[in-house]
Amino acid sequence: MKKELNTFHTGRYLLNAETSTDLSIINELLNVFHRMPLFPETITELQDNALAKAIFAEAKIEENPVTFEQVCRIMIHSRDNFSQDQSSIEVCNILAAHKLLDEKLSEKLTPEIISSVHNELIASMANIKEPDGSYRKGGIKADEKWISVPYTPPASTLDINFLIKQLLDWIENDLPSLNPIIKATLLHLHIKKIQPYSNANGHTARLLEIWYLKKNRIKILPYILPQIYNSRKEDYYKCISEFYASSDIQPFLHFIMDSLKDTVSSVRDANFAAMASVISDSRLAKMYENKTLIKRQYDFLCMIKESGASFQQEDLQLRKPYTKMYGNVSRTTVARDIKKYEDMGLIVLTKDGYVFKTDII
């Protein structure tokens, strides 16, 4: 998982995917956003204006002054409507890059894909040194605001071309079993470190991370990450700086896990609850169909499942809405039904009273 490269002019360059850190949250991200079917209601907030939020965050990372409302307005207009304002052009270009990458999800990871997204990102922008999107000619100095260790990216086009090809080959061929979220992160960080172009390297690196996640059918996460990078910009750049110095991915993974641990837990738990509700509905319907439950019992169980409220045995004959089903039956019938529900694992007694048991399997 570690590969040392010797460039033609720059010297040693390290590709390193080794980690000793606990990756449980990264693995849970893969489980929740890739393997698990997600109920729409559990991710409504995350999905709402997801692309616009991601584009806004991506623009803000690079200090674009646009507001979210302006981004939403720009997105509904043709790219041709913006020819002067560089802030609006940048937003248009990020949107165009997203659309381009969506068209290329079936393609392999190649240098041409990287160049094509970069070309979209620099279209109509001012002060572009290589307007044809070719690799940088000559050295540049990494000058991120929060950089802690001086770093100079590879200076020659020959080295850049070599490193990009080696990086893609390493990710695709040497790391076949590695979590694709980590591979997307490696793609992001190394493109950022190599800085193959004179402009828009950050946008290019983060857009390629999004593309790789989408290509591997990872939902929601591609739109969340730019928002995290923007909201915790100082932490983001500190991790980038550490990566420049060491090629160690672990600080960046810790940053992602710390940022997403609450989100992934919330989505997972809400999704399991929705899944349990569907399973409960199916089981109750089957019991009613095969006459294990009569209509009174079926209606009552459906009601307490939906309400989630607790109840006491005596409530069934004294309180609405339970009296609709149990107001005209004997206490013996009530007690018999309660025991039946308990024996079937459909209700459970808690300190607050009986509740519907959602974990019925």
TrEMBL record:
One of its GO terms (molecular function) is ATP binding. Coiled coil: none annotated. Residues 109-258 form the Fido domain. ATP binds at residues 236-237. The keyword ATP-binding applies. This is Filamentation induced by cAMP protein Fic. Keywords: ATP-binding, Nucleotide-binding. Gene3D superfamilies: Fido-like domain.
